[in-house]
Amino acid sequence: MVDRDVFRVSALGRVRIDHWGTQKSIAGELPLAGSGWPAPDAPRYALIAKVTSGSMLVLSTGLIYGSGRWFPVGADSACMLYYNAGAPSRLVFSFNDPNLGDNGGGASVWVRQWWGEF
Questions:
Q1: Distance between CA 27 and CA 10 in Å, rounded?
Q2: Measured between alpha carbons, how far is 118 from 96 in angstroms, rounded to an integer?
Q3: Cα dihedral 19/50/41/57 (nearest 10)
Q4: Parallel/antiparallel/unpaired status of strands 91-95 and 63-66
Q5: 25 and 100 in contact (C-beta within 8 Å)?
Q6: Coil, strand or helix at 101
Q7: How far is residue 27 from each of residues 1, 3, 18, 87, 95, measured CA to CA in Å?
Q8: Per-residue pLDDT reduced to its tens digit, 35-71
Q9: Omega before 31 cis (within 30°)?
């Protein structure tokens, strides 16, 4: 990942959220998660991501998420602009669930990347 790369994430799948087999779409569900969840401003159980260095601007909302802060991806992130002034970074995925220990299933994730577009 290089400064000013543009990303778009598409995903399909379901995540099991408990030991009883309850499944949720990786698109997530409303209401938004709130306090105590990895991404409080994202739908519950949605696919989420974070960068390990720099920040990501989610163009559809205008919100900037700094290093280590989870942001919503769901089934389609729309375009996102990456900023980084230094250290190498990774894009890490998870699910917006406060208890990942009882989860199963998962998502097929496609990441499109455009280099130096902006």
A1: 10
A2: 30
A3: -160
A4: unpaired
A5: no
A6: helix
A7: 25, 28, 17, 31, 10
A8: 999 999 999 999 999 999 999 999 999 999 999 999 9
A9: yes
List the structure tokens of 10: 């598409």
Residue in 83, 59, 81, 55 with CA at minimum distance from that of residue 70: 55
Q: What whole-number distance in Å separates Cα of residue 2 and Cα of residue 87?
A: 10
Which phi-psi region, left, alpha or beta, contains residue 26 (left: φ > 0; alpha: ψ -120 to 50)?
alpha
Inter-residue contact 22 to 51 (CB < 8 Å): no
Q: What's the pLDDT band for 87 if we cut at 50, 70, 90?
A: confident
Q: Would you state the pLDDT for residue 54? A: 95
pTM above 0.90, yes or no: yes
